[in-house]
Structure formats: C-alpha cells, structure tokens
C-alpha cells in the first residue's frame, strides 16, 4: 500500500502577496494520491484549487510562495529539489493541462511540433517514434484524421479538439501524474462530453494518476474516484465519489449539492391579445459575407423570461445584437410593442433605446473601471429620465438597495473594489436605472460560482416580478433554463431549431438537436457518462 | 494631495525639485539674471569667473544670463507646442477610434501622409514658407508632432472601444463627446501622460535642433540650441561652456521623465488591486 502512493502533501500552506504583505491563502491542506487514481478538487473560485494543483508540481504562481508543508512526489521532496531537477520532471513525470487550450498553445507553431517538445526535451524517443506515438494518442483521443491533424495550426481546429490535443501533449511522455485544471469549463456541453470521455479513457489506459480541478460537481462525479471539497484555502471534506454524492457530511457541501433548486413560479399563459414587448420577425443578419442569422423570429413579453439556448456560434448573442440595433438586420423587422423600429442603433431615438437594456457576461469588462458606482448607475438615470443631481443620487441609492448592496458603502467605490457577483449586480442596476421594458441577459451567470449565480438569478426573478420586466436570457446552461425560463428558443447554426413554452420543450418528443443538447448536460450520477456513451454507441450500431 | 506628495518616490521628488527650479528661473529671469538677455557687456569669449560667472559668448554677452533667459524661451515654447500637439492629436485620435468608419479612415490617412515625410525636413520646409516666429514654430512642430500622439491615442482608445462598457454607452445612445470624455479618456490617461513626458522632450529637442540650424528661436533671443551652436568653437579649445546648455536640456528631460514615471505608476496602480 505504501509503495502505491505517488503524491503526498502534508500541511501545505501557501501565502500570497497583496497590499504590501503576505497573507495565507492555503491553510494547511493534506492530500494523498495513489497511482492510477483520479482525485477531484472542487470548490468555488478563490478556494485554492488551482494553487494546490500547481503546488503538487512544486510550483507557485508569481506573487505566491509555499510557506510550510511537505510535498512528496514519488519519493522526491518537491520543495527541496533544484529547479533543474524539476524541469526534468515537468512534462515527463508530471504534466499539466490548462483551462484554456486556445490561450496555452503557441498560435505560430503546428500542433505536432508543440507535441514533440516534451519527448525531445526529455529525450524519451526519437522524432520518428514520437510522431508515431502522437498518431496513436490522437487516435485514442478520438481526434478526427489522427495522422494529419498534427500538421494543423491551433486556430485550424475546434476548441474541443484543441483541448484534446493538449491532453495528448500531456500524455506524450507517459507521465505518472497529470493535473487537469478545469479542462472543459470553456467548452459547450456537447463538446464537453467528447473531451471528458477522451480524458477518462486515456487516463485509465495509461494508468496515470490525475488531479482533476473543476467547479462543476456533475463533471467531477464522472471523472474522479475521490472528491475533495475546498473552501477559501481549507479542506471541507474528502470522500469517495459515491459516498460524497450520496451522503455529504458538511453543511457547505450540502449547499453546493442543492444549488440548482430555484423553481420559477408558474405564470399564466400568454393571452392571445397580448402584444410582445419585443419581436423579431423573420430576421436574417450577416457579419460581412457570413450569414449568422437565418429567418429568426422570437417574441419577448413583459413579465416573462425567454431563454435562448444553443452552443457557441449558434447565433444567440447575434439575435440580441439585432434586437438592440448594434447589428442591423439584412432582412426582417424588429418590433417594439407592435411598432416597427429602425433596424440600426443610429436610427432609434432615446425612448426606443430606453426600452431595451443589456447585462453582460463579463461584469469585469462591462463596467468602466474608471467610473465610480454612483456614475455607472447614475448616468442612465440622468440620461434617460433627465433627473437632476439630487434626484440621481436618490435614484442610485434606491437602485443599490434594490440589488441588495448597502448604498452608503458602495456609492463611491470603483468596480475593482467589488467581487464578481457584486459587479454583476451593478450591471443589473445599470440596466434597471433606465426603467426598461426588456432586459437582455447575455450569459450573465456563466462566469460566476454556483452559489453566487443562484443569488443573481433570484434577484433577477424578484426584479421581474416587481417591475414586470421581460427578460431575454441567453445561456448555454440547461439547468438555468429549467430554473427560470417561461419560453425557450433552441438555436443552432443561426437558425431556430425549436421554440415554445418551457414545458413543451423539455418534454418529449424532442427535436434531434434539442435531445442532444439536453442529454449532454452532466448529471450528478457517477455512472451518467458511461451510460450515455453506451446508449449512443448502441444507437449508432443499430 | 499632501499625502500624495509624501508617498512620492525619491526620483519623483528629485524631478519636482528640478522642474521647480526651472520654473523659478523662467518666471523671475529678469530678477535672477545678472545682465540683460541681449546687451553686449564684455569681450568675446571671456573666461569663467570675475564679473561673468560663466564667461561671455561669441558676441560678448553674459553666458549665465542668456542661459537663464533661454529657459523661458525654450521650455515655454516646448510646453506650448506639446500642449498643441496633444490637444490636436489626442482629440482627433480619440475621435477616430470612437467614430470609426470614414472619419477614422480620413484622419488616419492624413496622418500617414504627414508621417511619411521626415519631420525635420517637413518642419524646415514649412518654416521656410511661413516664416519663423514663435507662433509658426509652435503650430508647425505642434501639428507635426500631433501625428505621433494621434497614433498612440487611437491605438489605446481602440482597446476601450471594443469593451462591453463602451458598447453599453453606445446602446444608451450617448453623444460622442460624452463617450470620449467619460468612457475613453479616463481609461487611456496613463499611456497619454507617459507620452506627454516623452513628447515634451522630443519637442524640446526639435526646437533646439531647429535653433541650431538657425530656423528656431530667432536672434537676439536666447535659447539653448542656438547657444550651443554659437559657442561651439570653444569646444576645440577644451572649454566645456557650450555643453552647459546641452546639460540644461538633459537635466530637464530626465526630471520630467521621473515625474511622468511616478504619474504613470499612480494612474495605473492606484485603483487596481489584485483580487
């Protein structure tokens, strides 16, 4: 049993440098990993998952330092060995797969050349052999055209393929330990499945140990043998996957498990004579010569939520851009309350603009970092409603309390002084300040942790009720759609595949694409991926 | 404000002291200088010491007095020129980025054409046509240097124009001026301030170079560039006097850049704390 242990971490403490002093960010975490075992690290952002993952390599990001503890990898003390010895291990014995493959590959080199770096540096095989091995691994990872895909540049393959190519790179020297840092977070659900199954099979085939870092419970349930839950640099609990899923002990873990519990109250169905607040009628749009929307129609009603789902590139956000007039439609009409409005932003007047407001996915870039909260929220109120200074102040304070932020505390802050969830709330307040009829929410929760996202969704639901707002909710997260939508539009490749009330969309029979999308959402059952893949294999073999 | 100065690094304090000294010299030149700027008070090339602390120049004017008066001319002109360059280049750069389309194309191509002619030759040409007085000097160098500012302002503003918060302001229907003033400008201040320091030094050198060539500040007004030229012969006799005006230019350049560095650190680091 003792020899079987590959990685031991004892009482790991890591400090980060901020505001001129060192603060502890990891407070004494223990970790054991046996050969061939997959350990899932799970927690919200800031829990220290990635930091621990990197520390297992004896590595720390800039501005961090390991202050205490032992890291023992295959009998070596990772804190004591020289940088040169570490370089000998990296890539060969320990490999790392980063979250964003697109950002981690060098765009100027072909995949195969980047793959070869590891085997060449560590002299594990000749170029010829390594290329042959690359083909085998590409094939194992179910990459299309394994013998030629290596000669492409990173931008010539899709995101999911790139993530698998990175996994292939990690496997190139047959390492003992692979650290996966959120490898599927940036991918669509349908692509995620391919990558998950590829990673799972190859880890098993090479009998490597892995640390799998993610914030998605359902994903980790498919991948890991054991799960460790982290919160703000502390271990909350650790147990085998089945045990953890069926009977979590700690309260915090239970809250993680129960997050997706919001239920929208059933609303009265739309009456025949109700006029949609916004309607797209047979809209087509193009970026240059590329057709991105093809005869798309949808309707948003006051007080109701229209969820638009689909993979990235399906035209969800483009539909929103057409609505706002940022991208003028080539064909079709945009109607506000039954009246046609000019298709381009420049043609619309203030009262048209006021009706539709947007909330963005990345609250970081959606708020001007050089404006105070009071100006960010106050400006639309001033601009649309013509309030004077005193009235604007009052309005901002009122809005801040509506989004559950203490007005006195936040009035004079800058966005950088807020957390991710708070920034998103400010984004909501800015949209509300215009007193709009419809708010377009473009993936507003996808950059947030589950608990924070839940708070945002609850807030949006409350505001909808109070102000009779119509929402267009763009998302790729089916769970969110189930929670809050009234009507659903499913989009693929610029076309509407299916649309209708939520109940109808989620109940069989499904359109093939809707079915694929719904099936691909990971469930909390550790057998889910296996069963799904078996079912799909059976379906194709018939 | 007081606290701000207390936290200034030593280099910035050094820079501020130097700039303050220059300012005092500029403002109180007639009180400080022992002789007047233009009167001939001694023999040609008198040595240091005695009645003339730094000797006299090629016409017998007091070197120290001319050095002090030159600060007024050279620094004053350079500052005004830089302000003109920034007002023109900065505004049109931000405008080009914010408006895009044909406005951007037109302005950018005009700038391209202007930049394709070597600036010293271009300014010599323009000054020959327009004649050399302080106003044309400011305008010619200001306009030519504004092309560099335009490029920078446009480039940094383009990074802001693609952000969601800028899109939000477009969606709101904000006017162009408000967008430039409230959305773009605060976010591009840091590189523009840095450029201001650098540009100031370049303008300064251009004026000195033009004066050295005889097309800058005209006689009998003193300026550091022409002082180097007029007294250059002394170098061959091992006398360092002609280098003093050059040193004055160098010292001010360093001082201004120290202050700019500090500004830059403040404006880029003040509100950004690592989350």
Q: Low-confidence parts of chain A lasting 5 or more residues at pLDDT below 50? A: none
Unreliable residue runs of chain B: 270-275
- Determine the strand fraction of chain A and express it as a percent band: 15-25%
How does the major sheet of chain A shape up?
6 strands, mixed
Shape of chain B: elongated
Tally of separate helices of chain B: 11
Number of helices of chain A: 22
Structural class of chain B: mainly alpha
Percent strand of chain B = under 5%
SS-based class of chain A: alpha/beta
SSE pattern of chain B, N- to C-terminal: HHHHHHHHHHH
Strand order of the largest sheet of chain A: 6-7-8-3-9-10
The chain pair with the largest interface is:
A-B, 33 and 19 residues
- Binned, the helix content of chain A reads 25-40%
Rounded radius of gyration of chain B (Å)? 22 Å
Query: Please, what is the average pLDDT of chain A?
Result: 82
Oligomer: heterodimer
Mean pLDDT of chain B: 86
Shape of chain A: globular
In short:
With 542 residues, chain A is α/β, with parallel strands linked by helices.
Topology:
The complex is a heterodimer of chains A (542) and B (275).
Chain A (H helix, E strand, L loop, with lengths): L4 E14 L2 E14 L3 E5 L6 H7 L8 E10 L2 E2 L5 H7 L4 E4 L3 H4 L6 H11 L5 H14 L18 H13 L5 E5 L7 H17 L3 E6 L2 H7 L2 E6 L2 E7 H6 L4 H7 L20 E10 L2 E11 L4 E5 L6 H9 L6 E6 L2 E2 L9 H6 E4 L3 H4 L6 H13 L3 H14 L4 H4 L9 H14 L4 E5 L7 H18 L2 E6 L2 H7 L2 E6 L2 E7 H5 L5 H8 L8 H14 L1
Chain B lengths: L1 H5 L3 H18 L1 H4 L30 H37 L1 H15 L3 H12 L3 H28 L2 H9 L3 H38 L10 H7 L12 H27 L6
Would you give an account of this structure?
With 542 residues, chain A is an alpha/beta fold. Helices cover 39% and strands 25% of the residues of chain A. Chain A is built from 22 helices and 20 strands. A 6-stranded mixed beta sheet of chain A has the order 6-7-8-3-9-10, sandwiched between helices. A 6-stranded mixed beta sheet of chain A has the order 16-17-18-13-19-20, with helices on both faces. The mean pLDDT of chain A is 82. Chain B is built from 11 helices and no strands. Chain B starts with a helix and ends in a 6-residue tail after the last helix. The model of chain B is unreliable at 270-275 (pLDDT under 50). The chains are: A alpha/beta (542), B mainly alpha (275). The A-B interface holds A 18-19, 63, 324, 326, 345, 348-350, 353, 356-358, 360, 362, 365-371, 375, 379-380, 383-384, 414, 416-417, 419, 430, 434 and B 163-165, 167-168, 170-174, 182-183, 186-187, 271-275.
